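JOB MANIFEST
job_type = single_chain_structure
chain_count = 1
residues = 507
[input]
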Amino acid sequence: MRGDLVIGIDSSTTATKAIAFDRRGRIVAEGRAAVPLSNPKPGWFEQEVDDWTSAVTKALKQLTKKIDASRVAAISISNQRESFAQFDAKGKALRPGTLWLDERAHREVKDIMDELGDDIHVISGKPADVTPCLYRCRWLSTHMPKIWARTVMTAEVHGVLTHFLTGRWATSVSSADPMGLIDIKSYDWSDTLLKAAHLTRAQLPKLYRPGEIMGEVTMEAAKLTGLKAGTPVSAGGGDGQCAGTGVNIFTKGRAYVNLGTAAVSGSYGASYAIDPSFRSLVAVGEEGFSFETAIRTGTFLVNWMVERLFNVNPSKTPTIFKALESEAKTSPIGANGLVLVPYWSGCMTPYWDPAARGVIAGLSGSHSRGDVYRAILEGVALEQAMMTNRVQLATSPITHYAAVGGGSKSDLWCQILADASGRDVKRLDTAEASALGAAMAAAKSAGWYKTIATASAAMSGKPSSTFRPRAKEHRRYQELLAIYTDLWPKLSEWNQRLVNFAAAEKP
């Protein structure tokens, strides 16, 4: 293969990006397209399947107008996880795809948990939770039996886009794994979990390891996108695992932390491990696992607080964040007696409580805006430190974070995370980590590198800043972390009572 570029497609929840990278992981050109989101009923989140394929078409067409398509050695995909759709025998979508945000299957979580118990966690690596597709499959088979009876193929976003590009129903095991249907130790569909989902193997795409070639761009897809027919399409993975690869998760002692809308962190291990404090996922590598934690509110919480409580529109007042950071710097560790638990959108790791809600404890009339803002940054940092400590106990030592995402641009937040966790925080100059991780899988399939790990080492960004924990501040945060760790176990029962009370008021 003579091409000097690879393409990483990042199909996220709200946008699709197609980005061309060179051998050093530098962005050469890109294309983008928005993806609409539908919320037809409370707790339902859906997208039209045609919007998935039209967005990738638009993004690729933009990209291929900027580069010579003959330069592309291979393509790979990173995608929003746990989002899937059903198709008939002609490959036509039978209904909109349901997204990872969807919460309609709470009852099915309980039902399948009653049937399989801890086997769910042991087999899949994922504690029972409403997010995996397993439970929505059961919901669809129960509540939409006519559509389910016509379902010939069930595929997540990676599988859908692979079919669009190659004409083959194929996908990466790394992307399929978050569906909750994989026996993670064997990298294959689990017959036990498929039975619980009311699916058969024939109704699912063929699985490929990351970096394996799944097919080639068809003539039809080439005409639509501007790609060259015959361009290899290699298996990528879920966006979280791809992001880990994009920041070289294979580095000893490293955990990445993506301070984005959600704060997602992951570390790599060659050996399988499970614990309620994290999700075990198939890594974007030839083998191995990603141990992932998730705080569902990262920069979302920052923006929510600014807009809803401080009544400031950041787009009209872009200096607000600089002002708040300046005020927060004058607030001491512990924000003058404030502790914030960041469960504004429920809690996945480590408590798996969708009914969990946020807490601001210790408020008084003397607290300032800067105190509240600092409590937000500290709450996310303390939660991350608590979870990383638990991951480390079950897997291997974690000595530092590789920080990416919009929140990592904050020097104050990075320093708080370093002080609270006792770990270096290395802010990377890596842009578009998920797309880059997919591109690394493509680089391996193109023969540029022998393994995805060597591609990751060669193509990942280097630290632009390093924030080291300060001894005095770390000792102080250790005291605060002990208080923080005790807070939710004591409040969880109270929180459930409050949730039940509020639910009783709804018509």
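[summary]
The CA atoms of residues 108 and 135 lie 6 Å apart.
The chain has 17 helices and 23 strands.
exit_status = 0
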